Amino acid sequence: MEPPTNPGDSPVELELTVENVESALYQLYFDPNMESKNVAQKWLTQAQASAQAWQFCWALLSPDKLPEVQFFGASTLHTKICRHWSDLPTDQHESLRMQLLSHILRFSSGPKMVLTRLCVALASMALNLIPQAWSQPVADMVRAFQPQKPEPEVGSGAEATQDPQAHCLALLELLTVLPEEFQSSRLAQARRAQLREALAGEWTVVCPMLRQLLQSQDSSNQVKEKVLRCLSSWVGLDVPLGESQELVQDCFTTLSNPELFDTAVETIVNAISQPDCQRYVDALVNLTPLVLGLYDQLKTAAQDRDMETSHGICRIAVAMGETHSRVLLEQVEHWQEYLALVNMILFCTGIPGHYPVSETTSSLTLTFWYTLQDDILSFEEEKQAIYLQVYRPVYFQLVDVLLHKSHYPSQEEYTSWSSDDKEQFRIYRVDISDTLMYVYEMLGAELLSNLYDRLGRQLMDPQQSAVWQDTEALLFGFQSIAETIDVNYSDVVPGLIGLIPRINISNVMLADTVMYTIGSLAEWLADHPVMLGGILPMVLQGLVKAELSVSSVSTLKRICRECRGDLGPYAQDILTVSQDVLVKEIHKSSQCMWLMQALGFLLSALPVDDILGRLHSLITPHVQQLDTLAQQESDPTNKQSIIHILGMLSSLFTTLDINRQADGVDGAANPRLTPSQTTHNPVVVVLQQVFTLIQTILSKWLNDSDVVEAVCGVFDKSVRTLLHDFGPMVAQLSEMLGQIYSAFPQASALDLARQMVLIFAGEEHHMSSIKSLIVVLTSATLTIFQQGPRDHPDIAESFMYLHAQILKRKSDMYLSDELDVKALFYCGILSLKFPETPTVKAASLFFTELLSRCKDIPSLGEVLQRDGKLLTETILQAVGGGSPRSLTEHFSDVLLSLNRQCPVLLSQWLEETLQTPGFPAAQVSTEQKHTFSQQLLREQTNKRRVKEIVKEFSLLCRGLQGSGYSDY
Description:
The protein is mostly helical.
């Protein structure tokens, strides 16, 4: 069918006729041109909103139309009823209802999408009329669908009215969408409560009918499935479980029907998961035996590896046990039934198979054990003791089950798993680890003793220790607990530390867990350094294996951080092995960074006289490689190698802090001298030695932001770690930074300069170098702003943060004529207009600091007097819709600062800017603007209140006030 006209030509002027609507629909569905589709979509949306839509929608529902056209007709009806209900005169309500019912009967045999849409439309109409104008909607709907009374106006669809099953399904569809439409509708709170009550009252009509259909021998599976979905929809209204428990009980009988199983599970879970169910204790107690009655079916399914059935039954058991744990625990006379349910859930936790390849059920149960434990431990002491007698043995069983479930499969089987399966299994083990840690609260030290005894027996028995998975699981259990629980006072840890060296770590997964277990005990080793000698060789043994990279390096890092004061005797071994693996490039880049951090901790604790020599021997191979790379051509491979070496130096200097242990254990002065008393800090010595090399690298890679960032990273980490000890480098670095930035401006240089301002602002002998640097950086950045900074949000952000830091730490720099205060002010204005949140946040901080210094620095006061109105106007424009709504709170900070520092001027600027018609948005009236000004000017201290005022005004300007957006 060719469209009679082309809506694409003039979509707005096209007449609203049925033919034109059909034509637009053909264009929307069948025209391959996306632009034409968009034009049609826009026009059809306008058509739906028009008054004529009430008429043309019925013509579109004619039996001779395509299903897509009929669907649009039904959707239009829903849209009109939902959004334009007030346009329809009251005297037409009854005829609309009859027409809708008639069309639902006509479409009861399909198409399904049209039927559903018509049902949703009638449901929406019911929500508009209940309870005053339509007091018994469900009873009326049921009456209208009696198959022996076909509507005479059904016409050509009369044959559909002869089919009782089609009628029944259509009625069930209508009853299903009624609560769903209520849930999805946007309603005022009072109206929602009124409708909820009215609909819940209709349940007395719906429930018996659903029960009758579910029990009837004549009902097809299709009807029964629809009954289940209908019940699922109504329980969302918190209908009383006391009234529907018989219907829910009937649902359990459908679980034996494979076609209905999935829907029945969903319905039962929904029905018993409603929090309101807890009020109906008797109903819950009556339902518990039905859940337990599924145990045999569950065991059979598990035995047959029927994952779908076991998964579904597990969901029901967990829903009952977890949602109503406390209520069922308190039914003392039924304690055995609840214990049986807990054991059923324990079976689900330990269901045979490897997650997630041959079972997906066990993960559903883990949160149940948290809930049960919390409920038991929340009882008062005497009652708690009784419950613990019953449930502690269950939790010990749970530990066994969880450790078994955490077993890796055989190496061969594990290799065949997909990467997605391996990742899911990893996450599953993390969840088990968290559960074990939580269970420790209930089982305490006895749990650790239990694990230790089993590990000891295993390692002493050659036959048992041959099964590496058992050993790995027990260590995994230990590690899970030791990661978060303070095991310093545990009497089994010394024994465990003694057992670990006996473990054969030829299997990679076992070796990984051994490493992580040692790492989790690093704090314990710091308190018992005598045990380090037995453990460190194992870690260094792992360090040389690429497959143990992550676990061995992270463990060494933890030991070096926690035990650094006691590693002196082992320092040479650690450094030798580490230097070897770094030179041989055994580890990936990120692990090399961790290893360098570990060595930084280690070196920090050595005698000062030893550090420089060991530091030189550690970094010399890498500095030599860097020197070689600096002489070579600039290509991507060389670039990555340069960045890698610079990154390793950064990582080393992040943790190499010889002042970290300047005080003794009990606060007594440490006899060793700090370098400031004798010579330069070893890091400074090294930096001075490689400075020329770094300049050579920069001369070749100056235009590459990654390399420049890596260079700045080395100095940034050093400044942050060394603080004032970095002083000897300030002059050199300031000069180099200025040269870098002038040639090729980059945000990393500004960030490094900010760090130097933060640390050395109070040291006058460094300030001339830093001041010269700031002048150079500012001049170069002003040039960028003059040329247009939009492509450099990172530079704008870092520049604003730099000057905010200067204002905070060394504001007298602004007394100099070398800083163009007016230009900086305009840079701030431009930065406020960026859409990027970090840039706006930085600019807001800049203005907040600037405004607080206006009274002390005349040049700042002058620029504020002259351009404060521009700042106010910029912020109001942004708040009014010029910037994303998420940035509003940053603008409110600047307005609060303005009000604190110059309230009279702000009052004047607000009055002058807001009197412009349509500013900052056409949606706000003069009265609303005046109210905003008055509210704002009243608040000079309450930051939260100012944010609320500005947010509310922003919503008004955007036409969103009262739309629900104000809640977000």
